[in-house]
Design goal:
Blueprint (H helix, E strand, L loop, with lengths): L8 E5 L9 H11 L8 E5 L5 H5 L6 E5 L16 H6 L2 E6 L2 H6 L4 H13 L3 E6 L3 H5 L3 H13 L4 H4 L3 E4 L13 H19 L1 H6 L2 E4 L7 H5 L6 E4 L6 H11 L2
Parallel strand pairs: 1-2, 1-8, 2-3, 3-4, 4-5, 5-6, 6-7, 7-8
Helix pairs in contact: 1-12, 5-7, 7-9
The structure holds 2-phosphoglycolic acid.
2-phosphoglycolic acid binds next to strand 8.
């Protein structure tokens, strides 16, 4: 999947699944699924914080360590929180921010998402910023307006150089975990819209460099069509990242 200006990223989002003791066997199985040449693509597993140490032992040029959330604070009296420094110390190169599940259930507001992105960038970790509309917003033709708002709020105050390091995942809420995927055209339309927005805000050079992923029921069957779209530079994959064989199909598609 040669995107010319961007590398393809295939990122798994394990959510609250699997155990630390299962990480090694999973990675062993995934290694067998990896294509001979990555062709410039990267594979990331975004695992619960408890699994990071186990995953760090498996990391390689082909497999990067990812987390799913951090605290916006550097350190201090924040019982139960985990900082960007802590996940960096365990080798994390990526971290999901603003997933719709956290926006809905864990109070991740746009301001908080912005603060977490800043904390990650300061530690040299690439944020994977999730944005996406609800079914109601899509039905009312508010998709692009809402996504533009989310993107602008999340990137507020960042320098163009920082924006280049942010990976944006377009994840329509109605497609997450539902088995209902956006069509190739729907997904491309929004990813193109995000790139246009970046071009207007930060210029063509930056917008060409930002990796934009699609997420929402991407699987072994539908990945080829989605990944072939010109503005889709990879996937953020939930359910299908829990089985090495299924994830492997997507990884291979991304390296074509
Ligand atoms: P899904 O999840 O692939 O299971 O729909 C994607 C995500 O929530 O990142």
């Amino acid at each position: 999947m040669n995107k010319k200006y961007r590398r393809v990223i295939i990122a798994g989002n394990w959510k609250e699944n699997m155990l630390p003791s299962q990480v090694h066997d999973f990675c062993e199985a995934l290694r067998k699924e990896m294509p001979e040449s990555a062709n410039g693509s990267s594979v990331v597993l975004c695992v619960p914080a408890t699994h990071l140490a186990a995953l760090a032992k498996e990391k390689s040029r082909r497999l990067a360590v990812g987390a799913q959330n951090i605290s916006e604070f550097d350190k201090g009296a924040h019982t139960g929180e985990i900082s960007a420094d802590m996940i960096a110390d365990l080798g994390a190169k990526y971290c999901i921010v603003g997933h719709s599940e956290r926006r809905a259930s864990n109070g991740d507001t746009d301001e908080l998402v912005n603060a977490k992105i800043r904390a990650l960038l300061e530690r040299g970790i690439n944020p994977i910023l999730c944005v996406g509309e609800s079914l109601d917003q899509r039905d009312r033709d508010l998709t692009m307006e809402f996504i533009a708002y989310q993107v602008k709020a999340a990137l507020y105050g960042l320098t163009p150089e920082q924006v280049k390091k942010v990976v944006i995942a377009y994840e329509p809420i109605w497609a997450i975990g539902t088995g209902r995927t956006a069509t190739n055209e729907q997904a491309q339309e929004v990813c193109f819209g995000i790139r246009e927005l970046l071009r207007r805000q930060y210029g063509a050079l930056i917008s060409r460099k930002v990796c934009i992923l699609y997420g929402g029921s991407m699987n072994a069957k539908n990945c080829a069509g989605l990944l072939a779209q010109p503005d889709i530079d990879g996937g953020l994959i939930g359910g299908a990242s829990l089985k090495a064989a299924d994830f492997g199909v997507i990884v291979r598609e991304g390296s074509k």
